[in-house]
Amino acid sequence: MSKEPLIRLSEEAEEMVLEGLSAYMKEEFDTDIGNLPARFLLDFIIEMLGPHLYNQVIEDIEPWLYERFTVILEDMHSFKKD
After folding, report:
1. Domain range enclosing 65
2. What distance in Å separates the CA atoms of residue 43 and residue 61, rounded to the nearest whole number?
3. CA gap 6, 50 in Å, rounded
4. Is the whole model's pTM more than 0.85, yes or no?
């Protein structure tokens, strides 16, 4: 059973990335890769980088969320009746 990928791209984004990978391989390595190898390369990159990028986003958003929830809690307390 295969595990669910951590990061999913829209069809448009995936197509753009696949084209970019193919162009990069052609330009930098003079290697013309087809769609299937480009897809395998993309899957590998997502598998290797995905968890690190995901965790970085969580770490980056945590202070913002903390601040927002603190403000919300303060606002809730202002509605208390005496």
Report:
1. 11-78
2. 26
3. 6
4. no
